[in-house]
């Protein structure tokens, strides 16, 4: 079945550092890939998505490229801010309407 | 835009009590689902619905019931709460599109069973 493996945290960075959170997946067919973000005490927000190979999703300075050859969808940001501190979830959407989530990565950015 | 609305946001239950988590969406999406979030386990699918009158089990359905009498509403019922059901619950609805589906989540319901 479908599965998502993402980098275990927690990840702690200083402000303005470069961020990478790795995400790889296993799926049949041609899934869509997502990154969701959860700020402390809040719900899940869609951060970005990509629906086919080589697509790049981007939002709020975050980017992720759908790499079919490596079955990856790594999240990157060039310069993180304290306000980016949150839990990040990689997710896979198959041919149906359900999502398969990774376990989440806690990011803490210190000033 | 209301999107997906969940209530209550916080609830404390005693073991054996019953309750219903409400979920409503105003986007006319056919597909809706309930997930639970537990530390270190990501989100896991409890139940889902592909349209009014149709529901099915997800990955962790035991202890939960759902119904879908209208397109808008998808309540989740705990018939006899157990401490293992202490979790954060998210309702979601899916926008289908030829370019790929997108799932929208409610703000979550924090449930503690004592």
Show the helix and strand layout.
The complex is a heterodimer of chains A (111) and B (114).
Chain A: E1 3-6, E2 11-14, E3 19-21, E4 23-26, E5 32-38, E6 44-50, E7 56-59, E8 62-65, E9 75-77, E10 86-93, E11 99-101, E12 105-110
Parallel strand pairs in A: 2-12
Antiparallel strand pairs in A: 1-4, 3-9, 5-6, 5-10, 7-8, 8-9, 10-11, 10-12
Chain B: E1 4-7, E2 10-13, E3 19-25, E4 31-37, E5 43-51, E6 54-57, E7 64-66, E8 76-78, E9 87-95, E10 102-105, E11 109-113
Parallel strand pairs in B: 2-11
Antiparallel strand pairs in B: 1-3, 3-8, 4-5, 4-9, 5-6, 7-8, 9-10, 9-11
Order of helices and strands of chain A: EEEEEEEEEEEE
User: What's the mean pLDDT score of chain B?
Assistant: 92
The assigned structural class of chain A equals mainly beta
Shape of chain B: globular
Could you state the oligomeric state of the chains shown?
heterodimer
Summarize the main sheet of chain A.
6 strands, mixed
Give the helix tally of chain A.
Answer: 0
- Rg of chain A, rounded, reads 13 Å
Overall pLDDT level of chain A? 92
Helix content of chain A: under 10%
User: Number of DSSP strands of chain A?
Assistant: 12
Structural class computed from helices and strand pairing of chain B: mainly beta
- Unreliable stretches of chain A (pLDDT < 50, length at least 5) are none
Count every helix of chain B, treating DSSP H or I runs of 4 or more residues as helices.
0
List the secondary-structure elements of chain B in sequence, H or E. EEEEEEEEEEE
Q: Main β-sheet of chain B: number of strands, strand sense, barrel status?
A: 7 strands, mixed
How would you describe the shape of chain A?
globular
Our Rg estimate of chain B from Cα atoms comes to 14 Å
Poorly predicted residue ranges of chain B: none
Distance between the termini of chain B: 35 Å
């Amino acid at each position: 079945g479908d599965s998502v493996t993402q980098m275990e945290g927690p990840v702690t960075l200083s402000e303005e550092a470069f961020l990478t959170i790795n995400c790889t997946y296993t799926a049949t067919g041609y899934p869509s890939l997502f990154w969701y973000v959860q700020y402390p005490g809040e719900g899940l927000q869609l951060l970005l998505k990509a629906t086919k190979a080589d697509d790049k999703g981007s939002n709020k300075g975050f980017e992720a490229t759908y790499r079919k050859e490596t079955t990856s969808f790594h999240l990157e940001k060039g310069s993180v801010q304290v306000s980016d501190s949150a839990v990040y979830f990689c997710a896979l959407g198959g041919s149906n309407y359900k999502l398969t989530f990774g376990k989440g990565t806690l990011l803490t950015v210190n000033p | 835009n209301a999107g997906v609305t969940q209530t209550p946001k916080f609830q404390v239950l005693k073991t054996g009590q019953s309750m219903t988590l409400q979920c409503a969406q105003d986007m006319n999406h056919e597909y809706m689902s309930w997930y639970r979030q537990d530390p270190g386990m990501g989100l896991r699918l409890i139940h889902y619905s592909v349209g009014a009158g149709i529901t099915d089990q997800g990955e962790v359905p035991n202890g939960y019931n759902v119904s879908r009498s209208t397109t808008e509403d998808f309540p989740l019922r705990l018939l006899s709460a157990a401490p293992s059901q202490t979790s954060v619950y998210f309702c979601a609805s899916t926008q289908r599109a030829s370019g790929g589906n997108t799932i929208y989540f409610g703000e979550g319901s924090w449930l503690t069973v004592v």
